[in-house]
Amino acid sequence: MNMHEGPSLIRNDQAAGNRWVKVRLEGVRSNKAAIGAAVTIHAGGGTQSAPVLSQSSFLSLNDLRLHFGLGGAERVDKIVVRWPSGETEEFPGVAAGSLYLLREGSGQAAPLTMPR
Question: What residue segments make up the domains of the chain, in order of their start?
Answer without folding.
Answer: 19-106
